[in-house]
Specification:
Elements: E1 2-3, E2 8-10, E3 16-17, E4 49-51, E5 61-62, E6 70-72, H1 81-91, E7 95-99, E8 111-113, E9 116-118, H2 120-131, E10 135-138, H3 143-148, H4 153-162, E11 168-169, H5 177-180, H6 205-211, H7 219-240, H8 251-268, H9 278-306
Parallel strand pairs: 7-10, 7-11
Antiparallel strand pairs: 1-2, 2-3, 4-6, 5-6, 8-9
Helix pairs in contact: 7-8, 7-9
Length: about 300
């Protein structure tokens, strides 16, 4: 509270804050005991002020002295080194529980040797633990998390963090949407690169180029398509023989004309004549469906064989 004898605002810890403390951008901490040393922290010469959290859009942090107040260095044009230093102080000597997933398949990032986890990630994290003199306890991933995600020890380890069974999972994790919903991740250390590989063969000059339109189907399938077209055309001819499409005449001429019309129907993806008999109409529908399947399959496969090389 306010001290009339000292003319300042006394706060827990014995500090005495001057009137108007934090009301404007100033170096309010420059006269504190923490800054009255030969090599003061960087935040001692940084300006800050209290802000209205409901309208201030710049970075701000709740005050530990006045819990209803927020302070902001960014509002005064400075970075917040003070809060970061307090985080570092809070980590000193803290106990932390860590867990590991199974060994990684991407190089020397996380492997097991002599029953101990080693690799680039454990080494990196151990450096952080040593810097802050943290007490590390390795805890296994619980059976509940393992049973929940039996196909991925990495996801099971993240789940263990969500259950508060461990504080930190160490490994080269992919930050998938499923895992991000369970627990926060650190910033990315590195990224995996994926390549789409399409195998191609060299074209044999002009002949190879001309043969490209025939590559979507194997030769045996082309033979089957031709055979089916000829067979269907001949059946339609004998069913429709003597009707308006195929009047009585030389059989060889009528049969060959039917094969021609059937081939044209396949290429045009549409029937080139009308049937008059019941059997002919059934064959028309059957051949029309066959032609639709052939054209659709051919069209879907053709672009991959005609794509130009980059």
């Amino acid at each position: 509270g306010w001290s009339a004898t000292r003319g300042c605002l006394e706060v827990p810890g014995g500090a005495c804050l001057p009137p108007g403390h934090g009301s404007s951008c100033e170096t309010w901490d420059s006269a504190t005991s923490e800054c009255s040393v030969p090599s003061p922290p960087t935040w001692c010469e940084s300006e800050w002020c209290y802000v209205n959290a409901s309208v201030c859009w710049r970075p701000k942090v709740v005050s530990t002295v006045f819990p209803d107040f927020y302070y902001s260095y960014a509002t005064c044009g400075y970075l917040d080194d003070y809060t970061e230093s307090k985080h570092s102080t809070a980590l000193q000597g803290r106990r932390i529980r860590i867990s590991y997933p199974d060994d990684s398949s991407s190089g020397f990032t996380l492997v097991t040797r002599d029953g101990k986890k080693v690799g680039s990630f454990p080494t990196f994290m151990q450096g952080i633990f040593d810097r802050f003199h943290m007490k590390v306890e390795v805890v296994p991933v619980s059976q509940k998390s393992t049973e929940r995600f039996p196909k991925s020890s990495f996801t099971a380890c993240v789940h263990e963090v969500a259950l508060n069974g461990t504080d930190l999972c160490i490994g080269n994790f992919w930050s998938t949407s499923q895992r991000l919903l369970m627990a926060p991740f650190t910033t990315e250390v590195y990224q995996d690169t994926f390549y789409l590989v399409a195998f191609t063969t060299e074209e044999a000059g002009i002949l190879g180029t001309l043969a490209s339109p025939f590559r979507p189907f194997q030769p045996s399938l082309w033979l089957g398509i031709v055979g089916m077209t000829v067979l269907a055309s001949l059946v339609i001819y004998f069913l429709e023989r003597g009707k308006s499409n195929f009047r009585e005449g030389v059989m060889l001429y009528g049969a060959s004309r039917s094969v021609y019309v059937g081939s044209r129907s396949l290429l045009q993806s549409g029937l080139a004549w009308d049937a008059e008999t019941l059997g002919g109409r059934i064959m028309h529908l059957t051949f029309g469906f066959f032609a639709m399947i052939v054209i659709a399959s051919y069209t879907a496969n053709l672009p991959s064989f005609l794509v130009a090389k980059a």
